[in-house]
Amino acid sequence: MTLAAGSRLGPYEIVAPLGAGGMGEVYRARDTRLERTVAIKVLPTHLSSSPESRQRFEREAKTISQLSHPHICALHDVGREGDVEYLVMEYLEGETLAERLAKGPLPREQTLRYGIQMADALDKAHRQGIVHRDLKPGNVMITKSGVKLLDFGLAKAMAPASQQSSLTALPTQMNLTQEGTILGTFQYMAPEQLEGKEADARTDIFAFGCVLYEMATGKKAFSGATQASLISSILRDEPQPISRVQPMSPPALDRVVQTCFAKDPEDRWQSAGDVAKELKWIAEGTPAGVTLPRADTSVQRRRLRLAWFVAAVALLFGAVSAFLSRQSRPPEELTRFTIMPPSGQSFFGFVVLSPDARRILFLLRDEGGRTSIAVRALDSLETRRLPGTEDARGGFWSPDGREIAFFREGTLKRISAGGGPIQTICESGGAFSGAWSRQGTILFEKEFGDPIVAVSAAGGTPRPVTALDPARGELAHFHPAFLPDGRHFVFVVPNLDPEKTSVMLASLDSKDVRRLFHADSSAVFADPGYLLFARDDAVFAWRFDLRSLKLVGDPAPAFEQVHFGTEDNRLSASAAGNRVAYQSWFGRRRLVWVDRKGRDLGALGEIRGYTDVRISPDGQKVAVALRDLSHGRNLDLWVLDASRGTGSRITAERTDEFDPAWFPDGERLAYVSSHSGFYDLYERPANGGAERILVRTKQDKILPTVSPDGQHLLMSVPEAGNYARILTSLSKPGDSLRLSGDTRSSEEHPEISPDGRWTAFDSNESGQREIYVQPLPTGPKRQVSIGGGQMPVWNRSGSELFYAARDGMLRSAAMRLAAGRLEIGEPQALFLLQLEISGDLPWQHHPYDVSPDGQRFLVIRRAPDTEADGAVVVTNWTAL
């Protein structure tokens, strides 16, 4: 269609045609409301005739309209006049890059300047989840203020859903939502586009390399006499280096472009922001990016030598001056300070410094047991939770500190450090730790027993980058951490023999893996060149040469009271700049008897690192799990006398034993142990003795409870990032029944009623944890708690169910069976539990229990003279 001058589309008056192409016609127009000149693009009929296409087009246009960047052509409006769909864009004066390149290559200064602007614009769009897919000189306008990218991201919405892909059709008219279609202009297509695969940010980076190459050389990067030969060239050939076509160009520019041209997207730059930084580095005249002209005369050579001599003298003078200046300044003092969690909340397992060392990332847990990502600037008193990160399992920074990646509901996600929309990167299973390189690669481990996998931060399918060796006793690969080059990384490998647990070195570029040293925890890199790790009761620093990738000298103790988990080998420490941050852990807890009104009746036993408490059926003994600082910090089971507090150790392995559950006879204990790597269930006499395997599978099992007849175990088992209740027969091994009905929610702390007819548990299916009861083996469940609750405990008669409410109170609900129906009373508040909610209680275990008569409670609380577990920040840490 052709619009005449003076005709109108809504409030826009057509002035004159500007051009036409396969995507429609473009006109100069006047916005009669704002009295400004705009560009109007009228869409072809075949793109506006389908209601579905129009809906997709409008939705995508709204997204693009939010994209504000000085080097992206702004989209002002979209409209429809009769059957005419149109776009209203910023009116630009200048020429397209294609028109400019028809005159020859650009000067080096312009090539770098325009390249930086384009890369920065792409980076902005990619961070908004928008991919151009058709980057080419014809879609770049050169204006007085620099370049402007055109037609950004709209092709996805323009294509009709039913259109089939065709190599002869105009690429930008094809459907982008269907995998297997080809989009773009062939000269600038990435190999994955030609193969019909889904495009992502790295596809734009390939096209950007083609455009950058053409600007620098005046020649197309890939060429062919026919369409088929062009496709073959892109899939197989490497363009001639820019430095051979233009000898005066910087060699570093070859490296930038060649990395853009990698056939495998994983081998390219992983973000346009990294490309922009490299180009800025070259433009600033970094020596590695400068190529000296060949001298043709002796005069030129003498002048060149003189210039270099003067430059060298100036550089030497500057270095000496800087050295003397540093010598005259007093060294920065060693300082330490502690950041405490907000009232009623706790840090849960890790603290991570931002790359600029100015902010700190936490996983916060509230009194209801719900976690979320929180950020605090070190110069602020405010800790900000990020909405949308509730129930997160772990998090880490992007290399530029602008974003945070985190694990939630079995997926890896990313969010701006200031909050905002959340993007899903990939499926992640039960992962809870990861690392993000400056090249845009993310590493993490999916499940216990899986290798480390890598995925692009832009999204994709994770691929293994390590391989477990079970023959050597390797149980898992945990907690990857990148070295500064972004290619090498370290990770920890727990072993069947804890003395062989080691920190390993690996690379994204090689399958070779090298053992560095024995450690009890993961390792993190700290400037100016150390690896920090835990061994026994201290955190050590070991000098590490980044050039040779070898250890230097011997390790030296650096920090004490640092939290690290022997159950997952995570070191709760991070480093950036000259700072180190870590979560402190003092492990000073006490067991307190209280009555139904919360009055303190006295402490039981010594102050220790308790995590579990379970009173025997007769009330005479108490089974506890405690973390023993004198025993490798692992969890062990003890049995205490309920009146005197004296007791004896039941387990003494270098693995974790926890979650004790009494058998009905009061003579035996079921418990969880990590002997085989997975959390399996074992049985042992309460007075010590040999253990017996109850349930061993290649799947974790936690929070067991024994049925009143002693014939069944009820437990929580991980499933798709959550936990499900599983009932297992002890008399018929392998005979199990899944009680949970929905994998989208997590059901934990299962407890069987004393008559064996009901199970109580907490579930987050409503969005917060609530207490439910359900008949055994199956039946409709009923909600007990109101306003949140977790960790249910029955009294010995089954007439009362206690639970920890979201407000920190212990509440009680009467339970009465009448005419075959369970009557549930209104929950009543008893007293404030004052539980020690801390990162060393990864599932909250069983921090309280009730005596057989239902009149006393044994509760784990922080010792009164003990500092809370906070985040310690150390500046100028090497002074230690």
How would you describe the overall organization of this protein?
The protein has 880 residues and is of the alpha+beta class. The strands form 14 sheets. Strands 1-2-3-4-6-5 form a 6-stranded antiparallel sheet, covered by helices on one side. Strand 3 (24-31) and strand 4 form a beta hairpin. Helix 4 (108-127) packs antiparallel against helix 11 and helix 7 packs antiparallel against helix 10. It is elongated and about 95 Å long. It starts with 7 loop residues before the first strand and ends in a 5-residue tail after the last strand.
Question: What are the SSEs and their pairings?
Answer:
Elements: E1 8-9, E2 12-21, E3 24-31, E4 36-42, H1 45-48, H2 51-65, E5 75-81, E6 84-90, E7 95-96, H3 97-101, H4 108-127, E8 140-143, E9 146-149, H5 155-158, H6 191-194, H7 201-217, H8 227-236, H9 242-245, H10 251-260, H11 272-283, H12 298-328, E10 335-339, E11 346-353, E12 359-365, E13 371-377, E14 384-385, E15 394-397, E16 403-408, E17 411-416, E18 422-427, E19 434-436, E20 441-445, E21 452-456, E22 463-464, E23 478-482, E24 488-493, E25 502-507, E26 510-518, E27 523-526, E28 530-535, E29 538-545, E30 550-560, E31 573-576, E32 579-583, E33 589-595, E34 600-608, E35 610-615, E36 621-627, E37 635-641, E38 647-649, E39 657-662, E40 668-673, E41 680-685, E42 692-695, E43 702-706, E44 712-719, E45 722-729, E46 736-738, E47 747-752, E48 758-763, E49 770-775, E50 782-783, E51 789-794, E52 800-805, E53 809-818, E54 821-824, E55 828-832, E56 848-850, E57 856-862, E58 871-875
Antiparallel strand pairs: 1-2, 2-3, 3-4, 4-6, 5-6, 7-8, 8-9, 10-58, 11-12, 12-13, 13-14, 15-16, 16-17, 17-18, 19-20, 20-21, 21-22, 23-24, 24-25, 25-26, 27-28, 28-29, 29-30, 31-32, 32-58, 33-34, 33-57, 35-36, 36-37, 37-38, 39-40, 40-41, 41-42, 43-44, 44-45, 45-46, 47-48, 48-49, 49-50, 51-52, ...
Helix pairs in contact: 4-7, 4-11, 7-10
